[in-house]
Design a protein that fits this description.
nucleotide-binding; single chain; alpha+beta; aminoacyl-tRNA deacylase activity; 36 strands; six-stranded mixed beta sheet
């Protein structure tokens, strides 16, 4: 009976689907375990073999936990809103919903083929109105909340209104905008409703504000920092500029300290935690105000070094700072405006990363030093960011390398004075940036103090004169929540007198309307500006035609949509109760599942999705909607499976042609040189270069028979080109030249010539990120079809530790496939099942329990690659032991089930059991089977081992000596002699000396 993976895998995949084998219950006496993969985006390219890596790992854990008696929730769904589908819609006119639906169908087909134990009854899609109804609901809850620092949590905005009505805002300690003014209860009560609404926007957890954003004109949308690479959009490579726009924002900054503290309570890698700590960027220091000379304006800065207040030589504002236009002198206006325009073309990320480029412009304005009243020149420079701190710095060149470089770069120009040195240290070559090993000088009342004492004293004196105060600052900025896109969650918002109003939750969802065009409107409105039915009727409580807008009962709806991270910031909770129509998840389901026990996904989400998810989870906990503070207890970042790219090497020279040569109709053919000859030329081998030149000229003379003369001009030019893996032999790396020429991708090369080595064209190979553009993508369908899903699962785990990057090599997969066939042969011969009920030998039990121990430890420690090695060792040993014994082979089938579930199901079925193996108890390790009762001793004579003898381990030294001396082989070695000494170490050695 042979192993036919196609039949077995199709059979059990159908069984699982028909019987809902992996459906989890929301009420069970079993302990719960929730294992989750990061939300996949269904792209049109489908999955390549790199994508399932994390899914296979999580599936092994999910299946293992079921075997251990847990009620396991292992769901899957799709983060199905986003820019790629919208861009495709713009190019083709096809509705993004259709593209997304087709992509999801393709993903589902591939996921099912690999045999994941997902609870598909709980599938969610962020683009389904049934799902984003609750994303809209959460947005409303955020709008109706504020953050109270005294309570250290979010509270209903109605609570804050009640305080304003009784006390005003002077005593509140809450998260709010920086420009909030103090008002009394009487003043509040006298404000109009519109004035109150505008003021409350400065306190709400989601609010409208004019914000500096990354604007991509070509895409017509705002981009997040992680959607920009090297100053251009990640999608399409379009230029990105900085501009101010009125946007919805999320006040994540209110949660900065809790986001930091929460990291201490979760089991994440230290590197990932450190990424979040750096992004949150907590700094302790002081807020200092500098009066702009001759004006009413003040420049507020945050500094971690208030002890250096007397070293301020100049000030620098971010080019986008709101005061720039107001304080710039007429003489400097043109230069400042030109600089601002140039800076707008650089992303914040580029500006932060570029520490070498120095640029800036003097505004012509001066500020007063708070203590000395000396004039301090005010500059703008793009190394200062408007969104970090106050968007202004007090520059102390003697103590900061970047300020030092800036001061020296502009040394001698108008507005740049000599550097002030306030340290008893030499700064002639570099700034002194240490916080120890100095005393302050030229610093008035701070003279003689060190960093700690100087900081404390400086803050005290600043507070005395009302020019500053102690402050904790965070780098974390509020998250822009608006996107000028079509394919995203609509906001449940309409506008009355320009002020946002929330649509009552009972009328949700507000469904995305149809539009004719997915591009922004001609007057620059977002794509929803093209919708003709996009107005809110407050009487009918329904979306109606725009023609009914009268600003009395019918009002315009929000034209922006939510960003891609909206739906992914709470999706793990929806899985807990995915079909609930009356709430985002029931209290019972939330209390039962609590949060995710194991989360597996890429490290690229460290400062995006994972921060937003933690923020939303904490908010929902504050408002009583979620049971836990943190969403994900344990998180593992899987490494990347890298592709083995293949290269051909196009070689050419400039040509001098003579005679009747029609290059236009018979263009010069392309030439390719094989890998080893390419290597020789690159290394400067003159003979290899000469051989290539001769081949090139000879071929061209044949191609252009009418040419009078052909000669090469200039140096050789060799260009490596990625080549599709389908046209090479993956084992020998030989290019199939005919396949290459016939491939649609290479139609330009149909007349190409090839410089071979030993009659073959050998391609170059290189390990790179697996990508469609590099033609190194391996389709998992191909592997599943040829070798089976179980082989794919085992092989991906076998490649190396889960967290590490590792190259894919299809050539290695045959060994894993061979292992599965060898496993099968333990149970079957050509005639069928050969399992017997005989008692196994001690060696068989030892092999089994050694494997149980290793595999159990490996799964608990997420060391899946070494489990696969152990399975191979186990099967080899059992084959050598001629094991056909049910007492060994039954638990072995369960043991391998998490890794290779299809073959395990079939083995279990063939062993005579009904139903699935999925919940059969996992084999328990019994140490007694690994306790050695015998030892095979090497017996040596004068240090040279001559034979071995197996003896019980409980023998005494005297008993061992007696048995050895009586052995015929000992007597043959001694030949009648008596040894001078017999050295015996029980359990280790026997050595006869003399």
């Amino acid at each position: 009976m042979k192993y036919f993976h196609e039949q077995i895998e199709a059979k059990w995949q159908k069984y699982w689907a028909d019987n809902h084998t992996f459906a989890a219950s929301n009420s069970s006496e079993k302990p719960k375990y929730y294992v989750l993969d990061m939300f996949p985006y269904p792209s049109g390219a489908g999955l390549h073999v790199g994508h399932p890596l994390g899914y296979i790992a999580s599936d092994i854990v999910a299946r293992y936990k079921r075997h251990q008696g847990f009620n396991v929730l292992h769901p899957q769904g799709y983060d199905s809103f986003g820019l790629p589908a919208e861009q495709y819609a713009i190019q083709t006119g096809q509705h993004p919903e259709k593209t997304t639906r087709e992509n999801i169908a393709r993903y589902r087909e591939q996921l099912d083929k690999i045999g994941f134990s997902f609870d598909w009854d709980r599938e969610v899609r962020t683009s389904n109105p049934e799902y984003y109804k609750w994303t809209q609901w959460i947005f409303i809850q955020l709008f109706e909340s504020y953050y109270c620092y005294d309570a250290n949590q979010a509270l209903p905005i109605a609570n804050l209104v009640a305080i304003f009505e009784k006390e005003g805002n002077a005593a509140v300690h809450v998260a709010c905008d920086d420009d909030v003014f103090v008002f009394s209860a009487n003043e509040w009560n006298a404000f109009s409703e519109d004035e109150k609404a505008r003021l409350l926007l400065k306190y709400r957890l989601t609010y409208l504000a004019e914000t500096e954003v990354n604007w991509c004109p070509a895409l017509g949308t705002v981009l997040a920092n992680d959607e920009i690479v090297n100053g251009v959009s990640e999608r399409g490579g379009h230029p990105v500029i900085r501009k101010k726009m009125t946007q919805w924002s999320m006040r994540i900054s209110a949660y900065a300290e809790r986001l930091l503290q929460g990291l201490e309570t979760i089991d994440w890698t230290e590197s990932l935690k450190e990424s979040q700590r750096n992004w949150i960027g907590k700094s302790v220091g002081a807020s200092v105000k500098f009066q702009v000379s001759g004006s009413k304006f003040q420049i507020e800065v945050f500094t971690t070094r208030p002890d250096t207040i007397f070293g301020v030589t100049f000030m620098t504002l971010a080019p986008e700072h709101e005061l720039v236009a107001q304080i710039t002198t007429p003489e400097q206006k043109a230069a400042v405006e030109a600089y601002i325009e140039a800076t707008a073309k650089r992303s914040e990320r580029d500006r932060m990363a570029d520490v070498k480029t120095i640029s800036g412009v003097f505004t012509g304005a001066y500020a007063e030093h708070p203590f000395t009243k000396e004039p301090i020149p005010v500059w703008i420079g793009d190394y200062v960011l408007a969104g970090y701190g106050t968007g202004a710095v007090m520059a102390v060149p003697c103590g900061d390398e970047r300020d030092y470089a800036f001061a020296n770069y502009f040394k001698g120009t108008v507005g740049m004075p000599e550097i002030k040195n306030i340290f008893n240290q030499d700064i002639s070559e570099a700034a002194f940036a240490e916080k120890s090993g100095f005393e302050l000088v030229a610093s008035d009342f701070l003279n003689g103090l060190d960093y700690k004492a100087g900081t404390q004293k400086a803050i005290e004196e600043l507070e005395k004169i009302g020019a500053g105060k102690a402050k904790v600052n965070y780098r974390l900025r509020d998250a822009v929540f608006s996107r000028q896109r079509y394919w995203g969650e609509p906001f449940p918002v309409y506008y009355v007198n320009g002020l946002p109003q929330m649509i009552d939750a009972q009328h949700l969802p507000i469904v995305l309307p149809e539009v004719e065009k997915y591009l922004p409107t001609e007057d620059g409105q977002p794509p929803l500006g093209n919708a003709t039915t996009w107005a809110w009727d407050t009487k009918q409580c329904a979306v109606v035609s725009n023609q009914f807008i009268d600003h009395v009962t019918v009002f315009p709806l929000e034209l922006n949509t939510m960003p891609g991270w909206a739906g992914s910031s709470w999706y793990w909770m929806r899985y807990m109760d995915a079909k609930n129509e009356s709430e985002f998840a029931s209290e019972n389901a939330l209390q039962y599942w609590q949060n995710v026990d194991l989360y597996i996904g890429g490290s690229e989400h460290a400062t995006g999705h994972l921060l937003y998810a933690r923020f939303w989870n904490k908010f929902l906990k504050d408002r009583g909607f979620a049971p836990t503070e943190e969403p994900f207890k344990k998180l593992i970042n899987q490494g990347m499976i890298l592709g083995m790219s293949a290269f051909v090497y196009r070689i050419s020279w400039m040509l001098s042609l003579g005679g009747e040569v029609d290059v236009k109709n018979s263009p010069i053919p392309y030439f390719f040189i094989s890998k080893s000859k390419y290597d020789l030329i690159v290394k400067g081998d003159k003979q290899a270069l000469k051989d290539a030149e001769e081949f090139y000229l000879k071929s061209l003379n044949e191609f252009y028979p009418n040419a009078i003369s052909l000669s090469l001009v200039g140096d050789v030019n060799i260009v490596p080109l990625h080549v599709d893996l389908s046209v090479i032999n993956d084992i020998t790396n030989e290019l199939d030249i005919e396949k290459f020429k016939a491939h649609p991708l290479y139609s330009d090369y149909v007349n190409a010539e090839f410089i071979l080595e030993d009659g073959k064209y050998i391609v170059g190979r290189e390990v790179e990120k697996m990508s469609k553009s590099k033609y190194n993508v391996v389709n998992p369908d191909d592997i599943c079809n040829e070798y089976g899903a179980d082989t794919l699962r085992l092989y991906e785990m076998f490649l190396g530790p889960l967290e590490q990057a590792k190259p894919w090599n299809t050539a290695g997969i045959t060994g894993v496939y061979g292992f599965l066939k060898k496993l099968w042969r333990l149970y079957f011969d050509d005639n069928g099942l050969v399992v017997v009920n005989d008692e196994p030998t001690a060696d068989m039990y030892k092999t089994l329990h050694k494997t149980i121990k290793k595999v159990t430890e490996d799964i608990e420690n997420f060391s899946f690659n070494t489990s696969v090695s152990q399975f191979m060792i186990c099967v080899n040993e059992l084959a050598q032991q001629k094991c056909r014994h049910r007492a060994i082979l039954e638990p072995l089938a369960v043991l391998i089930s998490p890794y290779a579930p299809h073959i395990a199901e079939e083995l279990w079925n063939q062993l005579g059991y009904e139903g699935s193996i999925a919940t059969v108890a996992f084999p328990q390790f019994e140490a007694k089977y690994l306790v050695e009762s015998e030892k095979e001793y090497p017996v040596s004579f004068n240090g040279k081992m001559r034979f071995t003898i197996k003896l019980p381990l409980d023998l005494s030294v005297a008993e061992i000596e007696a048995i050895v001396m009586a052995d015929d082989r000992t007597q043959q070695q001694l030949q009648g002699r008596t040894p001078n000494k017999v050295i015996i170490v029980p359990g280790k050695i026997i050595n006869l000396v003399g």
